[in-house]
Write a structure and sequence with these properties.
The protein is an alpha+beta fold. It is 51% helix and 16% strand. The protein contains 24 helices and 22 strands. Helix 5 packs across helix 15 (447-473), helix 11 (347-381) runs parallel beside helix 15 (447-473) and helix 13 runs antiparallel to helix 15.
Amino acid sequence: MTSRPRPPWLAEFLLSVLLSPRYRDQQLGDLGEEFSARHCRRGLLHAWWWYWRQTLRSLGPNVALRIRNPRPSRKSRSNRMETLLQDLRYGIRGMRRSPAFAVVSTITLALAIGVNTAIFSMVNVVLFADLPMEHPETTTIFRSANQQLGVERGGFTLREYLAYRDNNESFAELAGWRANQWILTGGDEPLRVDGYSASPNFMRAWEIGPVAGRAFLEEEDQPGAPKVAILSHGFWTRHLGARLDVVGSTLRLDGIEHTVVGIMSPRLEFANLAEVEVWVPLTIDRTDESIDERILFVTGRLMPGVTADQADRDIAAIGAGIAEELPAQYGGWETRVDLARDNLLDANAERIMLLLTMAVGFVLLIACANVANMLLARGTARGREIAVRSALGAVRIRLVRQMLTESFVIAAAASVIGLAFSRGLMKVLIWISDGQEGFFALATLDTNVLLFTLIVTIVTPLAFGLLPAMSASRADVSGALKEGTSRSGGRKGNRARGFLVTAQVSLALMLMVAASLSARSVIALRQRELGFDATGLLTMRVVLPEAKYGENENRLQFFNQMMQRVEGLPAVEGVALTSSRPLVEPFSLRSFDIEGQPTLDDTDRPSAGISIVSPGYLDVVRMPLISGRSFSRSDTEQSFRVAMISREAERRYWNGQDPIGQRFKFVTATAVEWIRIVGVVGDLASTDQDERPDPAIYLPFAQDVPANTTVLVRTSGDPLSLAGPVRSLVWAIDPDQPIDDVKTMEQAIHELLVGDNALITLFVTFALFALVMASVGIYGVMAYSVSQRTSEISIRIALGAKTGNVRWMVLGQGGKLIAIGSVVGLIG
């Protein structure tokens, strides 16, 4: 007995939407019977064409009827609601009758929705999070870039800031600020506090005011003005008990009394600004030697009607004028103006966020494919039930709606579980990042995230339920009633299941390849030679205040005393000083000219990272000396200026010549003294395993003593056991001098890679989850296929087929799906 032909489902769907609910079933039934009759008399093509003509002819009258009667009757709405409630109750009962299916499908989907919600909560920070300023759509952040130096987000000089502030035609307010540190004394022990020196109009530019006291006054940015400070809300709460009488009191920063004039709004404790504890006015001194140092950040509020692109062109023209006037210092630098929200992530972070979003999207697609496969198999098992309902007059669209409602029940339950899972996952993200990834901590389950989960709950039933519903509703009524099963699980059903499994395999393989390559990169970076020996090294930061140690001689005297005392401690094998911890902290980049070589343009001029180190530095960090000599105590401020260069700098800029004894000069406005090369040392590893080491230049500590210095202590025992004794020796020299950032070099390197480790852990976890789900999908398809072919397999064995041949026949079917999925995945 042949099955009754079905009308085109899209035309049937349009009619079910447009027809009046009162007559819908009757009219669809009449059209279906006429479709079957025409199919028997004239063929399928004629029947399809006739059905579509009837559908198109009815569109106009039915749309007009809906316009004349836009609101359905109360009875109609009541019937519609009653039908929906019936579908929901039936769907819940169906889940109860199949608990294994309900649990597996719900948990599979819940895990996928959970990871998507957790990652979207981070994307939400970039797209929708409340920024600390008022009207962020008119607030801009400036960034400087230099392609020659590889700088994407550099700072600005005081000269640039003043030029932009005084000459622009696009900004109602333009403010600048710089990071700073001070030593706070007067308590039990000296405390280093982080803060910003900001122009007085900074709070006006962001339209945000203090919660107590006042903002800075315009005249307080001038040299010699009274010293004032504004405390951050967090510092005021943590250290001063949120006392209102703090306003008007004094704070001793770097030995200088500052009057507290206000308490900053807690809204400014956002992202990196959360670490700020004290704000002071930015001193504007046009005669300062640091006027060309890139230490400032710049922000501005646009004038009404001015766009960010217009402001960008305005500022670019001013910057070009500065570069034309001072090409040595400003050649190659460009300024960009972006809206505040566009500056939350740099280019690398944006790529990482895109990859994470794609990864969790793949996981959700694989989960949907898995549940769709289970629904296809379940639809086949329910063939008799669906056939009975069809025989009793249920139209196809009604069956599809019923099964989609069941899919919605699964998605709703999965979303509730997924939300709980996402909260735990966000805590795991912070844990695996060792607290170093502050961006993870900003992610919260706010209204936007809940709305995203709601959208996923509505969309995913269509993704995993529509194909099974359409397949199951296309049942062979007579065959199902006679045999107790549906033929919807035949060739078309097998093709659909095979397609879903192939898609799962390809998506999972793409994730596995990406995760494997990323993990290999991090492992290779950990295992390769660093260029020095990090074991047994204690590192600590000493920052001398400018007010007390402003002269080079005073700083040198302090550090010499400290080194002499630390070297006398038991188990200490050596002490060295440096401006930057090797590998962990980037060297400051500077351009230079080489004596005897042509002077090149700014874009082609040699450049290298600069590190200032003390005598004995190579022995303490165990870095090899390739040729020449290392620094000695005779390399002082009064002696001829000398330097050591790395092997990469020798290869790149001296073209195979012996650089010992040759000279170079830094490209600055005041650089008139030549520097002689006395040694060549080994290279430090690059933080990117695919890149060559960066060229480096080392300068003697005594010739230019940095106030911000890292102390390196080599010991044969536990490095951290020396932290207390070293701190006591420093306080014996200066009781007001704090010691910061005390850690081992191995710990510092671990923290350098901890962000990569967190991301790699995420990628690997998602990839393994996808692989497991793809494996479950393959197993489900193979198990169902074998169950459908039981009679065939029995006949083959009865006719003499060997067991091994039968096994290979089944495995070949699964292997074909895996092979196709693998090819597609590798291409992807």
